[in-house]
Amino acid sequence: MTAETKYRVIGTRPIRPDGVDKVTGRAVYGADVKLPRMAHAKILRSPHAHARILSIDTARAEAVPGVLAVITARDLPEASGVVEAGEGGAVNMRDASHNILAHGKVLYQGHAVAAVAATSPHIAAEAVRLIDVEYEVLPPVMNVRRAMEPDAPLLHEDLHTDTAGEKSEQPSNIASRHLAEEGDVEQGFAQAAVVIEREFETATVHQGYIEPHATVAEWRADGQLTIWTSTQGAFAVREQCAEILKHPQSEIRVIPTEIGGGFGGKINVYLEPVAAVLSRKTGRPIKITMDRAEVLTGTGPTPGSYIRVKMGADREGRITAAEAFLAYEAGAYPGSAIGAGCLCVFAPYKLKNVRIDGYDVVVNKPKSAAYRAPGATVAEFATETVVDEICRKLGMDPLDFRRLNSAVEGDWKPWGPPYARIGHLECVEAAMASGHWRSPLQKTASAPDGAFRRRGRGVASGYWMNWDGTSSCTGRLNPDGTVSLLEGSTDIGGTRASVAMQFAEEFGVDYAQVRPQVVDTDTIGYTDVTGGSRTTFGTGLAAVELARRMKAEIRDKLAPLWEVEPGAITWNAGVFSADGRQATVPEAAKLLAEHGQHVIVSVTAKGSNASGAFAVHIADVEVDPETGKVDVIRYTAVQDAGRAIHPAYVEGQMQGGVAQGIGWALHEGYWYDEAGRLRNASLLDYRMPTTLDVPNIECIIVEVPNPGHPYGVRGAGEVPIVPPPAAIANAIYDAVGVRLRRLPMTPDRVLEAILASEAEA
Amino acid sequence: MATALLSDKVAVSATVNGEEVDFLCEPRESLLEVLRDRLGLTGAKEGCNNGNCGACCVILDGRLVNSCCVLGVEVQGSTVTTVEGLGSPDGLTPLQQAFLEEAALQCGVCTPGFLVAAQALLDRIPHPTEAEIRWWLAGNLCRCTGYDKIIRAVQKAAGAASA
Questions:
Q1: Which range marks the domain in which residue B45 is found?
Q2: How far B76 CA sits from the closest chain A CA (Å)?
Q3: Which of A37, A537, A726, B10 is the most exposed place for a label (fewest CB within 10 A)?
Q4: Tens-place pLDDT, residues A205-250
Q5: Domain A33-138+211-260+266-298 in CATH 3.30.413.10
Q6: Taking the model in full, what pTM does it have?
Q7: Range 487-526 of A in CB contact (< 8 A) with B
Q8: B131 touches chain A (CB under 8 A)
Q9: Cα–Cα distance for residue pair B39/B17, rounded to 1 Å
């Protein structure tokens, strides 16, 4: 739990290399890019949740002075194929193309229909309103359970349910079914002393990054396309654009700008191909930025869900069986995070008898996208709430229960090999030993206004599987001994620092001697998205390998100068030596440069064992029984980070994830009317937590090294969003004795539950 | 219809980050647009364009405002400070330094707004309590940090200023 002192750089807390630019306003984000002759575009979006497009007349828009071009889906080639987009899942490119400009039908309010390029964004916005679209409005399907009914209106007449490769005969809104079974569930429940089965519903929520999507594309006459964009993965943008535009990847260069948050939502393309086509048409660079309403209605939120979880335990508290039914709203096109939800639903526990049944279902909402531990949060909300109920029934401490049932190395998990070395048990034990858990909670309190409040404490575990993927780094030894470290991973939360630190540790130099830069797709080898909590792990692996190869190359080039064999040169703590000669890295760099020798090395590394991350959270809440308002008054997050390269940035991930989890638990949700229109498409009405909604968040970093990484790193970014909804729901129960099984747990729902329980009593 | 799209521009003079500037803008342009598109000051960000996220915060004649909710033509004769106006070429302000040391930013896109807002707070209340900091910064949304380290950075900067 304490950082070992064998490292010089790892475990320290240096300032990030991009920090000064970011506190002085100089960092260039997507919307800050400006090119000579740049024009601007706006998107026309569907007002209907479900409608057939009968006609589109662009004549009035085209007549506006300053309008340069208008495009619709007709201007895109018919795309096909599937692109792997990391934890965003596989992207069907026909669907992706139809999602960025509607083809025949609009499938959600906010679905892009046409785009206008003009000399100013205001002219483009005015002209967009002059496009005449004739719609035949169709009945929308806004809820996963309704969408699964046989008589539900169909979104896609050619969609058939895929069950392990078998297609259903009848078309359906159910895109796929995922089933995993182990042992004998019926027998397991028969052995149980307590069986609890509950239903849960969760609302669609958004990643809520503060920077709206923004892109600039320039299509030159020779066919070379350059795209500046705010993305989690420049190569993912290149690949998707190539498929959608039917343009060779070699002709597309993607320059990632600084990115103002992503959380999974900036992997799929929305604007880039549209800007590219408009640029080709106008011969000018085209910039498109979304406004906030477009972000909420027109990008990819996380799925709403319906979940049923049934668990049984014997008298000693051992889980005897577990069963889950999960149905996720994919949105307008197939591809929710249902697979990950199924994988995570029971992940913290050792299970012998288990059955998991998951459904990916299309509804008339925006096509869902990844959101921090995609699919896991709602699934584990259900499980962890049921576990709490079992503990109450058995009169068992919830951390004792988790310690008893914790999954450990070698235990079964659905799909894939058994668990490698994991740290759930260590997190449970750290939570038990925490100051928070050991300090008693006063169960009632009076607020500053004199009103009466009830307090409660809840705990929950969480799991996210993490992703390995492929990363590249290029290192150039400069004559002054510094190293230019080029990376393909966009830096959302400090990964320039965490990757450079691993390089510095391995290369035997100070952190300040490493100059990391995030570069474009023509400058660096293939790199998967910054997602799946993979960058510090996977790009870190590449950086460590790079340091090793650069040391070898320095040895090879020093050898003839020192007139020794390369094998005779040893390296220790940043110093090369042979035959009584010595050179530090800067000395070696200078010597090599003087002899016209330069060291430039590129590495592409594929990780193979990201290993999962576990967390255990403790929440104290205060409930106003008169209004149902819930305040989180104390919060502790315990998490296995494998090895915390930069502990402050790991804490930052934990605290940020907790805050998003608190928002998901208490405030956030898409509110649709009967016609399928989103009624809270602004940051006033889509209520993300403010400084007043979250307390300081105490962090306990557990370090159970991941054997799949030379320094033991596990991805840390995603798992902290998983436990908060359940921890808070369990704390609400502890405070007021009611179980909330719908997210968000808004004051009206909490109050309704309190009043219902009082009426029962 | 067409002519209505091409509004006349208005000449405006103001002091921005200590420099006298003159610019032409359309009456419908927000101060945020003017700063970003006409003056090349892209530090202030658009997160919502309706005053709910605080990413575009600037100090206008001593008052903290969301520049997306002020028109460019309104700043005639006024003094505006943006994030680019904090600190100096050879040094960061205690707040900027504390944000770096305390890891108070992740993606950094809300950071300019938080720095300007927090500076406006410290200009008024040099030693705020945690409750005062949280209250004052409630108009600035951050989605990455959970606010913990931002609050600590402001506390640290306030402490450093008194030292």
A1: 2-84
A2: 22
A3: A37
A4: 999 999 999 999 999 999 999 999 999 999 999 999 999 999 999 9
A5: no
A6: 0.97
A7: 492-494
A8: no
A9: 11
